[in-house]
């Protein structure tokens, strides 16, 4: 048992919410949301080389992946792999990119089910 970080009521370390005040993950010293996030220590031009984010803040807002290589539900990077992406090269469901592989895309060139491109890929 540990004290809740919000109300100091004793709670189980496995509790998902405090039964007294309703705080999420009350046994954790710090809580900044649910999900998974990884940022590489190595940086290039101030951005992490790799940022993976499938995380939501405590208020329910998603955390976008922003890096040279960005992977997540929402992502922006030189290389973007996401559901909603922006980048130079993007593999996404919805994207705006220089080179796009997507279901719905806008960009310089790419392959898409529905897309608006300035230049067509010739195969």
TrEMBL record:
Keywords: Membrane, Transmembrane, Transmembrane helix. It comes from the Bacteria. The chain crosses the membrane at residues 63-82, 94-118. This is Zinc-ribbon domain-containing protein. It comes from Persicirhabdus sediminis.
